[in-house]
Specification:
The structure is a homodimer.
Chain A (H helix, E strand, L loop, with lengths): L15 H11 L3 H10 L13 H17 L17 H12 L3 H21 L2 H13 L4 E4 L15 E5 L4 E5 L7 E4 L8 E10 L2 E11 L11 E5 L12 E5 L2 E4 L3 E2 L4 E2 L5 E2 L5 H10 L2 H26 L3 E2 L9 E2 L4 H31 L7 H32 L1 H5 L5 H9 L8 H25 L7 H9 L3 H14 L10 H28 L4 H6 L2 H26 L3 H21 L1 H6 L5 H18 L3 H7 L4 H4 L7
Parallel strand pairs in A: 1-5, 2-5
Antiparallel strand pairs in A: 2-3, 3-9, 4-8, 5-6, 6-10, 7-8, 11-12, 13-14
Helix pairs in contact in A: 1-19, 1-22, 3-5, 4-5, 4-8, 5-6, 5-8, 8-9, 8-10, 8-22, 9-10, 9-18, 9-19, 9-21, 10-12, 10-13, 13-14, 13-16, 13-18, 15-16, 15-18, 16-18, 16-19, 18-19, 19-21
Chain lengths: ~650, ~650
């Protein structure tokens, strides 16, 4: 790895602890991430704050072209037929981009991840040969036209039709209603030349469910093609560099071969054909290949949070307010307990999610890699990605806002970068799957697993199986999960004799929260199913419980990942700091739900009452390592760009 | 009251329930508010979403001039000497403005409330005669130059000096250090011609604490005057229409009479003179006159929340997603329990804060009105204003974000107005006093009261006084407070036999939360004081507890106000809806702190476990009244301006 003088981090100086924490958090990808940081052209990486919509789009396109030329854009998209692209490279590149401007990041995601990804994953050799080279070089800018105005999260109900016309061997793409208008589509308003359009495939009068077809949108000079109507969403709450817009199709015809036909196509004889007979399975298989987008968006949100926390914490280590006894020059912001409580638990959570994201990337690299994977592994990857995307993007919104408030009035000035982050990251909670809907998918997958586990036990005649054993079957398949289970086992016998920083106790609490809430949800689901009457209402009422279960699961998975990350850390001093950081994460999570633990007799009130003080104590313990913790987050100081940190 | 055809609400049609709820929530100011709504020139009231910084400033200034001409700008600033302005009119006008564009609102606040307010409250006849007419007509645009770069919330430590020069009978205004630079000052970067500058007054070498002097900044053509250096904060996270900037003074001289000398001035003989001997008391008296700003900003934040919730709730009453049994066209968003839980508790809280804000305005009108008020009333007003400002502006941030997410991708399009609200209202949590710091003031006032109550009991020899009696002395002085106390008394004997919607039980829980946390804070404060050693650290550790006490107090005050509002409502059907709304507010607040109630044995776990279901049930009960509840919030549909609600 060579650092040039042009690299802004060529001279990055870290504290010893900061460097060690960074290696630990970078985990299995420490080397790749170090190279990315050192070679990323970070000069001019941040969009000037006051560009208008058009100028923002210009800037973003130009910047992405520059990055593509430097090898940082098209990662993950193969430029040859049959290639799968390197999912690992895609995820790591995306997060590097997300450490800087999020419009560039998302435009990269639209072009390479979504548009390129659709061609790669849903298309076959001809599509790869014909289009991937143009995708990679950005000569062919494209859209991922899935969402419709009338059907935000409900992909199965898309109204756009893709009708096969045997007379001319063409497909007719049509938007039959205003609700069928494709909406929020990146690259649609201005730059896109082609779109991967999702719609209902109709062959010989029969519907075969959602498929994807490539439809040219504009000619070489950018003029819209006949039958295509484009709308511009214009100004947005953030991501001004993305030209989101609407697309309507009025009986637009394309050759049959434009159908991305890996999972469903039309024979020369004009008959529908698919390697997957079951339409439901086919639908979820097709959507499943797009999991990379969720992995990347969650990781991108996490990077936005890291950047905001880096700015706010570094500021809090410089800024003094109010003199106090023994501190005539004023107290450093980060020496106020209230300020520590604002920022340090969020830093801890950043580490926790970082550990989980590493595991998610690993799982994706496995499932999408060269080696074969099982359908079960694929489904688990989708659940993990959906849940972690939601958790990380909600967290990003919270963290960026906390960082803004922690910087006071200075945080509100665009020159300090937090306001752009705030605006940009907001929509991460909605796109690539609305978080609330994604959490429902997580809970649904858990319930399915749970049911299957019970059925399996029934079949083998083990009717006396304890719920614990069932829980074990559902939850602990990964090595990290097993490690956590072992920790929990040590605390299970006498939980109230453990200390508040006993990892076994944390593990036990996290497991109990998930297990018990899942079991009771399953029970309530069964009664709802039996109750008859308005089935929708019965399930509808379980909505908040469903969200709780999904969150409890994701928290446990995250803690397991953090424990595994510490286990892999070989530097004893960094390890000690990580242990404290992990305790702060775990205890903050327990504290948020301590009413639940009390209600379910998992904790005494005496113990619950002192959690707050213990969190304060952990903050105090981490306070001397605040700078190192920020360095460990892996965003070089020179990339932060906040004026407040300059003088 | 005459409605012209030009008024966009001339034809506003409300449901009967909506009209009744509006009257109830408008409370004592129902008539004034109805007139304001009907006469406010709401055409063009919303800033075009894509204006750049300069165009936003132009638009905002022009719009404010237009409003001023229509009688909606200068409310509250008298144009004659000796006038106090009408505080009631000021507060009501501010909230009407805040129902539309917040840049206009804040520019009005800077010009009339802060700059005009400083002249009015801190100046004497000559200042009033010389400057108030220009303030009122906006011929003299001005700044309120208090905050310094080095001293955000710490006004007592301001470094700017105002030094009396007897040789020339002038005052020399000087910024001795970079930290003394005035920062975030509205009207500074572009429009201001004069500033009310806060600094340390030095007479004959002696410092007399913070005083305020009027300093001309620019000549008639807008050129900066000698010795004045102006900076431009440029682009911000919102409020682009406000030209915030920095001000530095290099030994700028102004005549002695430019000192706003109501509370401290210089005699013709060159000696310092003040009607208030104690410097501390003088400082707080001067700052205290500025309470109107906090009252207005809190109310403005509340209006932003109302606007966002109005948009999101109306959208949720139109938008369908996912078909379900018996609902082939899809389920209305607001029929999802999860969606109800997102929006309805926030609507309930809007009503609660509305009730409290009415009382706050009433208190301000009394203290700042013609009739004399006591120092105690003034101090209570300041505490109330500080706390309610924090509560309402934090809430505004939460509510606007929830509304954005509840509208999904559409919420992110600027044409739907939520993103501008989000950006604009963000800083409300910081300006006019950082919320965290203001909550410390609230807790401090409560502790002082508590201490005085104990001392009074001690003096009268009542050593056996129960804590309850002390609590009573501290907390229940208002008639609303007494009403709540009576309700609590009915539940106190057998709290666990009450229902979850028993107002007496709510009252008891709110009181217990405040009383107990205040008592334990007082106890911890005493030990901290006794502990010796690092006094700062001992108090610092109580920071989170301090915040909890302040919040508990504000919640109780808010509930008391809501109960009083219902008591005043004469429409039995509206009253019933308000009772349910109040229960939803109260129970949501209890639910958030239910760990605390469990830890302190104020609630059984059995009871705690069913609160969530009870909240769901209340949401279900209010669901048919959702539109009426939105109408009651008092923002006419025609003012919302969201494209999403148009077709």
């Amino acid at each position: 790895m060579t650092l040039t003088d042009q690299s802004p981090i060529a001279h990055e100086r870290l504290t010893t602890m900061g460097a060690a924490l960074r290696v630990a958090l970078d985990g299995p990808y420490a080397a790749q991430r170090a190279v990315a940081r050192a070679t990323f052209p970070a000069e001019g990486a941040l969009r000037p704050v006051d560009l208008d919509v058009e100028a923002s789009r210009d800037w973003t396109l130009a910047r992405l072209q520059e990055l593509q030329a430097a090898g940082f854009g098209s990662a993950g998209v193969p430029d040859r037929a049959g290639g799968h692209g390197d999912p690992l490279e895609a995820a790591l590149t995306f997060e590097t981009l997300a450490a800087c401007d999020l419009s560039v990041t998302i435009k990269s995601g639209v072009q390479f991840g979504l548009f390129g990804g659709a061609i790669m994953n849903l298309g076959t050799d001809w599509h790869h040969d014909a289009f991937l080279p143009g995708v990679t070089t950005m000569e062919l800018l494209g859209c991922f036209a899935m969402t419709e105005l009338g059907h935000g999260s409900d992909v199965a109900s898309l109204e756009t039709t893709i009708t096969y016309l045997p007379e001319t061997d063409e497909l007719e793409v049509h938007s039959p209603t205003p609700g069928a208008t494709k909406a929020y589509i990146g690259n649609a308003a201005r730059d896109g030349r082609m779109a991967a359009v999702f719609g209902q495939l109709v062959v010989d009068g029969e519907r075969h469910g959602v498929h994807t077809v490539l439809v040219p949108l504009r000619d070489e000079r950018g003029a819209t093609l006949p039958g295509v109507t484009v709308g511009d969403h214009g100004h947005k709450g953030g991501l001004l560099g993305i030209d989101n817009g609407t697309l309507r199709f009025d009986r637009v015809r394309v050759p049959r071969r434009m159908l991305l036909d890996k999972y469903g196509g039309i024979t020369d004889e004009g008959a529908y054909t698919s390697p997957i007979a079951d339409p439901g399975r086919r639908f979820f298989t097709m959507l499943g290949t797009l999991v990379r987008g969720r992995v990347c968006v969650g990781g991108g949100g996490a990077m936005a949070a890291r950047r905001a926390l880096s700015i706010a914490t570094r500021h809090a280590l410089r800024r003094r307010q109010f003199a106090a006894p023994g501190r005539p020059d004023g107290v450093l912001l980060l020496d106020y307990v209230v300020h520590q409580r604002r920022l340090l638990p969020l830093l801890a959570r950043s580490y926790a999610f970082g550990a989980a994201q590493n595991q998610l990337i690993e799982a994706m690299a496995h499932v999408q890699g060269e080696d074969p994977s099982t359908e079960r592994e694929q489904r688990e990857l989708e659940t993990f990605a959906a849940g972690l995307k939601s958790m990380q993007t909600w967290f990003a919104n919270t963290a960026v806002q906390a960082a803004r408030e922690a910087c006071g009035g200075a945080g509100y000035l665009s020159e300090n970068e937090l306001t752009a982050l705030r605006g940009d990251v907001d929509i991460f909670a909605t796109f690539e799957g609305d978080n609330t809907v994604l959490m429902q998918l997580v809970a649904k997958a858990l319930l399915t697993d749970y049911k299957q586990a019970w059925s399996a036990l029934d079949r083998t005649g083990v009717v006396q199986a304890t719920t614990r054993a069932v829980g074990g079957m559902v939850m602990e398949r990964t090595s990290a999960g097993l490690m956590l289970e072992r920790l929990a086992a040590t605390a299970r016998r006498r939980p109230d004799e453990t200390t508040l920083v006993d990892r076994g106790w944390h593990a036990l609490m996290f497991e109990e929260r998930e297990r018990h809430s899942l079991e009771s949800l399953a029970r309530r689901m069964r009664s709802a199913a039996k109750s008859g009457g308005d089935g929708f209402e019965a399930f509808n009422r379980l909505g908040p419980h469903v969200q709780f279960v999904a969150r409890a699961h994701m928290e446990r998975v995250t803690l397991a990942a953090f424990v595994a990350l510490i286990d892999a850390c070989e530097d004893p001093e960094a390890r000690a700091v990580l242990e404290t950081t992990c305790s702060l994460y775990a205890l903050s999570s327990i504290a948020e739900d301590r009413a639940w633990f009390l209600e379910h007799s998992r904790m005494t009130t005496a113990r619950s009452k002192v959690i707050g003080d213990q969190i304060d104590a952990l903050c105090r313990e981490l306070r001397p390592h605040a700078l190192a913790l920020v360095e460990g987050l892996g965003i070089p100081e020179a990339w932060l760009g906040a004026a407040i940190l300059r003088d």
